[in-house]
Amino acid sequence: xxxxxxxxxxxxxxxxxxxxxxxxxxxxxxxxxxxxxxxxxxxxxxxxxxxxxxxxxxxxxxxxxxxxxxxxxxxxxxxxxxxxxxxxxxxxxxxxxxxxxxxxxxxxxxxxxxxxxxxxxxxxxxxxxxxxxxxxxxxxxxxxxxxxxxxxxxxxxxxxxxxxxxxxxxxxxxxxxxxxxxxxxxxxxxxxxxxxxxxxxxxxxxxxxxxxxxxxxxxxxxxxxxxxxxxxxxxxxxxxxxxxxxxxxxxxxxxxxxxxxxxxxxxxxxxxxxxxxxxxxxxxxxxxxxxxxxxxxxxxxxxxxxxxxxxxxxxxxxxxxxxxxxxxxxxxxxxxxxxxxxxxxxxxxxxxxxxxxxxxxxxxxxxxxxxxxxxxxxxxxxxxxxxxxxxxxxxxxxxxxxxxxxxxxxxxxxxxxxxxxxxxxxxxxxxxxxxxxxxxxxxxxxxxxxxx
Amino acid sequence: xxxxxxxxxxxxxxxxxxxxxxxxxxxxxxxxxxxxxxxxxxxxxxxxxxxxxxxxxxxxxxxxxxxxxxxxxxxxxxxxxxx
Lengths: 452, 83
Ligand SMILES: Cc1ncc(COP(=O)(O)O)c(C=O)c1O
Description:
- The structure holds two protein chains of two kinds.
- By secondary structure, chain A is an alpha/beta fold.
- Chain A is built from 13 helices and 22 strands.
- Chain A has helices at about 40-45, 55-70, 90-95, 105-115, 130-140, 150-160, 195-200, 225-245, 270-275, 275-290, 305-310, 400-405, 435-440, and strands at about 5, 10-15, 35, 35-40, 50-55, 75-80, 100-105, 120-125, 145, 165-175, 185-190, 205-215, 250, 300-305, 315-325, 330-335, 350-355, 360-370, 375-385, 390-395, 415-420, 425-430.
- Chain B has one domain (about 10-75).
- Chain B is built from three helices and four strands.
- Chain B has a three-stranded antiparallel β-sheet with strand order 1-2-3.
- In chain B, strand 2 (about 15) and strand 3 (about 20-25) form a beta hairpin.
- The longest helix of chain B is centred in the last third of the chain and has 17 residues, at about 60-75.
- Classes of the chains: A alpha/beta, B alpha+beta.
- At the A-B interface, strand 1 and strand 2 of A face strand 3, helix 1, helix 2, strand 4 and helix 3 of B.
- Strand 1 (about 5) of chain A pairs parallel with strand 4 (about 55) of chain B.
- Bound molecules: pyridoxal-5'-phosphate.
């Protein structure tokens, strides 16, 4: 008699209909391929763990977002939020699509220039701009978004030295009816601080106020908050028209659109609750069109969307190192992806699946990284198939912030690979090596010799 | 190794523990192993039987079986071993 195919024995507790913290145990769909390239092949060729980005998904997502806005309001300009993912190849995909650059530091400013972005198409945000940064930004005709009064005075001092007029906007913070209210960046709307700043800039001969900016927060689930923000910026625009007969060129609504990732503690998956680009576009353009801004002076709408444009295009692939049982009988799975490579695991319940399922049964599982640290938890509680050492796992939607906020810790950061629209793979950032890691270390003479 | 008294396993792999009121589900192999345990088979006998029926190597089977028995203990489905 021919023998049957073996499946490992599994027993699972049944919780009559009540979803527990391990979730509903919905059928797990493995991810064996990304853009038709096999996960196994990618890992064999480029090592494990591995970041993978899909150029196709980046471009499609960008075009979907652009079209949601352009079909409602023709004057729209995206500026790629460098901090979200500043791998040069990624930035250049956005620049090829027409995005300007949005930067928040001298470092990012230099990156954008080196990528070939004209200075006049760089938006310079953030509270940390040195005198040299400001001078260079003025020289390049970049758009400086002023964060606080000290910066405003700094520009007043620096601009005359450059012989150029600084092109400025102010960042405005405001109550949009959502929590938390980000009041630490920019000038407040409700208490009149923003208006005070405007009244300092307008008469100054070395500055030209060309726009207004806000960034109301990140992962904003309520499109209406954007309608409120737009209306408040529009009200300031009208006030400037009335008092100074001056017409602003743009309103910048910042970033903050949610991605389809699931926040920790959320009851429903992010893929069910995330508003669409159409929802956000409707809120923002509706408020603009219905504002009192003079029709022939309607401003360009700038958007600095970050995570919603790139999260979906990024994958983190890895391998199982071991299985263990915890004291309470729970299974724990140790993988080679640590939280240092998945910074966003501190606020997302990341979607993780095997590349291949040999057996449908799942068990209550905790997934740990390899870091020898208690905080290194990729998923605290998930229904997961039992995998074996060497099996591959795929974490979805990791394109935003992980490739900028990653921490080098106890080993080298891995390769980042881009799959282009034709299905060809390219390393877009090489893994660190002993040489690259040591290149910046300096050993004082008296510490060069050791004898043990 | 003994399964606790009164524990009932249905044909489609549901296990009910009247001592605690909890229910469990078993896959086919799990079902077979629980049956063999309740028939009083030892670990090595269980391995024999399973190997006869299924295509599996002894070392991996031993690993899976150890793990499975730990789960049963964890779920309080086995009599405490007398020593
Ligand atoms: C000023 C500014 N613009 C844009 C972004 C991008 O935000 P998000 O990724 O939420 O779209 C950020 C992120 O913190 C930001 O600070």
